[in-house]
Amino acid sequence: MALSFFVFLTFALFSLSLVARTTTTTVGVTFSSATSATHTKPLSPEQIASTVKSLGFGSVRLEVSDPAMVRAFLYSNTTLLLTIPNHQVPVIAANRSNAVRWLYVNVVPFFPRAKITTISVGNDLLESTPSFSSFLIPAIRNIHLALRDLGIRKISVSTTFSFINAVTTSFPPSSAVFQEPALEIVIRPLLQFLRDTNSSFLVNIYPYNLYRLHGEIPIGYALFQEHPFNFRDDLTTGVRYRNLFDMMVDAVVSAMAVAGHENIPVVVTETGWPSSSADPTEVEANAAYAEMYIKGLVKHLKSGIGTPLRKEGVSEAYVYELFDKEVKTGATPHGRSWGILYPNMTNKYEIEFSGSYRNYQGRNSLELIVGLFLVFALFHGFLVFPLL
Ligand SMILES: *[C@@H]1O[C@H](CO)[C@@H](O)[C@H](O)[C@H]1NC(C)=O
Ligand SMILES: *[C@@H]1O[C@H](CO)[C@@H](O)[C@H](O)[C@H]1NC(C)=O
Ligand SMILES: *[C@@H]1O[C@H](CO)[C@@H](O)[C@H](O)[C@H]1NC(C)=O
Ligand SMILES: *[C@@H]1O[C@H](CO)[C@@H](O)[C@H](O)[C@H]1NC(C)=O
To answer: What Enzyme Commission number(s) apply to this enzyme (predicted)?
Structure first.
């Protein structure tokens, strides 16, 4: 009897440490090439690359792929996520040789010296150009097959959704499903493709936008502030949410599960908080809140505790965005500034993005607490299995 307890205890702690060891989230940043177009003194790709590295980001997402930018990351350990612009999707869907041509410009000259990991075919295409949605899956397949033709197997292919346009609800997360008709046209075949190719589901997640749509959400809940009343319980799954970000991630996880795919990794391609807005009614778009959000986000991702439904959390998350687009051009919708840097490259916030994204100390003490609890529970004959 005692022996089986110990075997069980060992097994329990072993599984826990397995989970712990695989929990890492890469924190990256999005760079929009629109930024260079709107800046009075455009920065060189080399300046941008060294800024990304010096800030300590492990990964960079190019909102529009640009060969000069990819070149600037040659021989660096920064991984790259490239995006094919929406308007090129029908062309690439039409003919695989167009896909090969795109890869010859954007990937072949640089890979593997530049660590390109992912190509997103389009960004929020369903919303911005819905008439192209039937081209999305053929374009993704063509890029995938073209990579295989070129003998490249380490780059995964996907597309990027925006949360608000893809998922029906964020609360409770367990009741979320994908919106029709996107589910049947795009998402269902995409999920099958992602599973077959070991690729990730890419989604832009903005608690800021959801907060603005639902005034009843407490601001601290959107900003990762810990407070005794900052929680919501999902009564179906019986889990407690302490921030809006986790709730939105788990809504995506639930929607995938309902569509029959529980284990596809999630990458948050964009998330952030604006430090200002041209619209004076957006009082929450301020630097203090933006710093709280990004700090809270990075701390949460580094803690390695994941979300209630995804213990390993999201595999990557990209802060939106590196630089403010210059507001005077009116290029940004609603004139919001999302950058973590001013156009003159000075930091807006004091945030540590670098280092190991794993809180060893936190995890060790968590393991210790859970371990002690298990010992305690075993001695008292509690049923501990549901804990795992
Ligand atoms: C990249 O990572 C490898 C292995 O961790 C390390 O040896 C190398 O120095 C790094 N290169 C750069 C440019 O940081
Ligand atoms: C694809 O493009 C190539 C070269 O442009 C052309 O030779 C081929 O006929 C095209 N295939 C289709 C199915 O349109
Ligand atoms: C996906 O990953 C599994 C396990 O790591 C591996 O066996 C399989 O070959 C991979 N499939 C593809 C298409 O890369
Ligand atoms: C950079 O721009 C910001 C905002 O316009 C300003 O507050 C700051 O002083 C500038 N820094 C330098 C070094 O010019």
So the answer is: 3.2.1.39
